Amino acid sequence: MQSKAKKALSLLLALALFVALTACASPSPSPATSAPAGETAAPTESAAAPESPSAGETRPNILHLALEGEAATLDTLKAEDTIALNVTGSLNVGLYIRDADGVPRLALAESVDKSDDNLVFTYHLKDAVWSNGDPVTAHDFVFSWRELADPANALQYSILLRTTAVLNADEVIDGELPKEELGITAIDDKTLEVRFERPIPYVETALAMGSFFPVNEAFYKAQGDQYGTSPETTLSNGAFLLKSYQPSATFIEMVKNPDYVFADRISVDGLTYQVVKDSQQAVLAYENGDIDVVVLGGEQAELYSDAPEFTPVLTGALWYLSPNVLVPGLDNLNLRKALALSFDKEALVKTVLKDGSVPADYIVTKLTHITADGADFRDLTKPFLEVNKELAKEYWQKAPEELGVSEVSFTLLVEDNEATINASQYLQAQIQENLPGVTITIEQMPKKNRVERMAAHDYELALTRWGPDYSDATTFLDLFLTGSTYNYGSWSNAEFDRLEKSASDELINDIPARLKALQDAEQIIGEDAAVFPVYQKANAYLIKPYVKGIEFTTTGTLISRYAVIEQ
Amino acid sequence: MRAYILKRAAIAVLTLLLIVLILFVLMTFLPGSPFNDERLSPEQIATLRARYGLDQPILVQFWNFMKNTFSGDFGVSYAIQKNVPISSFLSSRLPVSMRIGGQAILLGTFLGLILGIVAALKHNTIWDTLCTVLSVVGVSIPSYVFALGLSYLFGFKLKWFPILYQDALPFQSSVLATVALSLFTMASIARFTRTELLEVLSSDYILFAQSRGIDGFRLIARHALRNALIPVVTVLAPLVVGLMTGSLVVERIFSVPGVGQLLVEGIQANDYSVVTALSFVYSLLYIAIMLVVDILYGVIDPRIRLAKGASQS
Amino acid sequence: MTIENAETRLHAGATPPAAEEFAFDEHDFEFAAEGDFAALAAEPISPVSFTKEAMGRLARNRGALCSLFFIVLIVLFALIGPLVSGYSYEQQLTGHDNMAPRIQGLEKLGFLDGREAVPMSTGVKIVNKYEKLEDGETVYHWFGTDVLGRDLFTRTWEGTRISLFIALVAVLIDMLFGMSYGLISGYFGGKVDMVMQRIVEVLHGIPNLIIITLLIIVLKPGLLSIILALMLTGWIGMSRVARAQMIKLKEQEFVLAARTLGARPFFLISKEVLPNIIGQLLVMSMFSIPSAIFSEAFLAFIGIGIPVPMASLGSIISDSFKSLTAHPYMMIFPVVVLGLLMLSFNLLADGLRDALDPRMKDR
């Protein structure tokens, strides 16, 4: 028999232990107990202590990058998401390459002859080689473009052939013409001819995209399903060669390609990608020196906001609320305007996102459309739908009369990642607070399900994102054309359609008039509150001080090939 | 005995078939399809569905799957690894998961046994309470919190082990993941051992052994423990489930290239073939372990073959 | 009623704790209660006395009592916490994001006064966000606030409420269904038992993580689908215990007697057998509650938990996990509540089992 005191003591001890264990488990001790201490802080130490243990020795000339997930494929034709594009972009190169200044530069082509009407481009290729020693020929381009267009392959980015207006692209993709009819021909091994239906001003930046990279037909077909599953079954012609890889690898190793056309510009000997899905672990690994460049998630961005290596990079992606105008209530202009004006975007990016994202009072994002004289479309065009809670209330007061109801409720579709869920909860609270009578219910789901629901027009409101495919305002504005596949909200405006189509048609070569048409078209979206822009996304990076030369494209993609590791 | 084993095996196969069928049915109700990327046109989606046979009736799909599976072909992934044969990445990922899972079971069982034995022998003392609390705490702190805590302390502060899994250092870099994963096993084994050992200690034959003057270590080791540990075998199967759940979290935190997260990613991406393949492998593993446990137990304890309900903790 | 209980009781009462002594004394073979044995045998033994005795045993178990106290305390807080905080669980206060805990009274002691050591990369920065607010003097967030400026005290108790609700409903349904299933299967035996047991075996073979995840996505995440998914496989253990007990009890004299007297199966099961096994099932469900709470927390982590802005303990923990290195306080309170809840239920269940199983007594 135990004495009462002993039992009570044991329980007390047990509880103490429990609390202690809990405290251990949280990385820094609770603020209450450790406020005055200086040694607690995680990042401090390593920031203060100059470098990792290897400071005295020479640092391996290898760049360590992090990925947020596994690459879905190493096949340039199938690479569609940012992660796969990032990895395949290190391995391969196409006719053009896009650097930090956003200007497309010839890569595999020595020179290009353009016809006077800009409808025929003839490329003279350099003597580049594949990693198996085969020369890169014009036939490799012909093969990959035809594969891209082939309806049997059902490749997402075949849409790029349509937007660049490659001759017969629409007909081939729709299966009306055989793929041999696509406007690309190999005159000889080193001469490639591309024909277009109409001149597209941004065509050269678009051709720098991964989907247009060449593919070695013989090798590709020989590997079949196994293509891109190991270094032996992958061919590359870019800055780096694959050294170790297996499908869905969490660690990818690459070495410098001595035969790369710009090999003299590559300073590092190799590159590694480490998949880290947990953002806090990524930062710990960065602090430990395992990773040189890392994207900060949510609260980490706050901790590093005054660190010298903190680098916020604006991407071209716009996050916006899309109303489905087929839904009763959302067809009402006053209600749409009330909703669009009712939330404080500035506070959202400052207190919720904290990663350098900027409030968006526009559709065409900053850095997307740069005119020939270097001006940003955004700076030339006036913003719209800036937050105005008073005005929102006024619109909301008009809406009930027209709708015949005093309360409305909508479901908001959101994909399940931390930033968007927080943002959507913030938007929900703001709208409900500023427009009494409006109720927003959040429905979260995987991104793919959200996209599918939207594509089926089976939604009311959705927080959605669009990233630019090429450097022109139409990459955003085309979404809103009547009948466009991506016009999920079914908004339609004849004047907008007219202006938007003229920009890709009769005004294509009249740059000032085209710009004006695009600007006017964008304003119509704003006046009609066809969508409610929220923010333009930025990524907050940490880059080790000894890593120099990391660049970002104008749309925010990391360029690793010019990195230099300082000793 | 042979009849018993055959009966168990038949049930196992039936279970496996049924599981796959249930999965197929559930997945037809899953919202969305694997091919709903923003830039795919409806025609392209139809083409892709046809290519992978997703436009066929569910029973045809089920039949095809079973046919292929038993010839060792899991098909290709639709979304998370575009068109890559599932077997080609399962073959590299499954061993990693199984190794870390095995390490965790060994570590967890070892620690759990110690805790459980101490608790039972010192029943109703502070040690008992302490062990109980430790084992409950083991399952009440979410494993991701524990995992990050380990990584912070041993990976970042003390730098004893790498924070992230590395293929080049398969053991060192899996230590933290193993410890995080073993928590659940440890807790379950500790609780179960305690209960069983207490029961055995109060049983007649222990009294008899004591009355014959067998005492101390010999009594515990030779007589009590041996009999107490037999039923512990039965918790093995549920532990595999625990490992599955745990590995999902732990593999994500430590970037382990295992199969744990593939399942959830597959579900979220509607990658049916990956989900079914993984579920099949999991179920197979789980059922095989249950089968072995059942048969083992039947061999050890003939009473089990009679209609005796399993004694639960 | 019961002969079985009476037997155990007599046995437990009469046998000395014979662990150490193994030599027999001569009076070992006499009735312990010499003289009044007739009176003792005549004394009516009702189930109440067993329950009473069990309760008595439970009351002597400090750990279990303490656990019971904590459970009651947590339930009380869950009920009144959200009402007294002055905030609502979904209310986002502008400018109140990421505020450290601050409690009246304690702040004067320099403890929980709203200060927070933020481990900035350039060094630890002590901030007190309350000082930056205009009316900061009068603002108190007892557990602090989250990234969206919601009061964590309110959310923690609101979350506790939902977690407890999910667990209780799931376990209750498990218990009712599993019990009926097991009792029916055990009572009728033969073909019925065979079929029912094969079904259980097949269901038991399904790794429930997969089914739960799929089911929730199919049904859309929500309170109902989570409860449904959790109870999907939870009843199996319950049914096994019920069946085993049924098989053991149905051949006992008191059941046979009732059957001979023409009692129908339903009466036999509910009136004769059920009272004898309800205790064990109660213990089982006590163990199931923490595991249900924990499963819910796991679902929250993989993003199919309770829909936002609703909160459960699990969803708060998995949300604040993302800010763990920056603002650890966000997680400490919900984790402590979760841990305390699980610990208490487990210890209480242990105590209850010991109380209901007299063999464990005094060992």
**Quaternary structure:** heterotrimer
Poorly predicted sequence stretches spanning 5 or more consecutive residues of chain B? 306-313
Kindly state the mean pLDDT of chain C as a whole number? 79
State the helical fraction of chain B: over 70%
Instruction: Kindly provide the radius of gyration of chain C, computed on alpha-carbon positions and rounded to a whole number of angstroms.
Output: 27 Å
What characterizes the major β-sheet of chain C? Answer: 2 strands, antiparallel
CATH class designation of the domain at 93-269 in chain B: Mainly Alpha
- The counted number of beta strands of chain B is 0
Structural class of chain C: mainly alpha
Gyration radius of chain B (Cα, Å) is: 23 Å
Main sheet summary of chain B: none
Q: Return the CATH topology of the largest domain in chain C.
A: MetI-like fold
Question: Which key terms come to mind for this protein?
Answer:
heterotrimer, A: 567 residues, alpha+beta, D-Maltodextrin-Binding Protein, domain 2, Dipeptide-binding Protein, domain 1, Dipeptide-binding Protein, domain 3, 3 domains, 20 helices, globular, disordered N terminus, B: 313 residues, mainly alpha, MetI-like fold, disordered C terminus
What does this entry look like structurally?
The complex is a heterotrimer of chains A (567), B (313) and C (363). Chain A is an alpha+beta fold and 567 residues long. Helix content of chain A is 33%, strand content 20%. Chain A is globular and about 75 Å long. The model of chain A is unreliable at 1-55 (pLDDT under 50). Among the domains of chain B are: 37-71, no CATH class; 93-269, MetI-like fold (Orthogonal Bundle), CATH 1.10.3720.10. Chain B has helices at residues 2-29, 42-51, 58-70, 86-121, 126-140, 143-157, 175-201, 204-211, 216-232, 236-253, 260-268, 272-300. Chain C folds into three domains: 3-42, no CATH class; 50-87 and 150-360, MetI-like (MetI-like fold), CATH 1.10.3720.10; 106-138, no CATH class. In chain C, strands 1-2 form a two-stranded antiparallel sheet. Chain C starts with a helix and ends in a 7-residue tail after the last helix. The model of chain C is unreliable at 1-21 (pLDDT under 50). Chains in contact: A-B, A-C, B-C. The interface between A and B is large, with 68 and 67 residues.
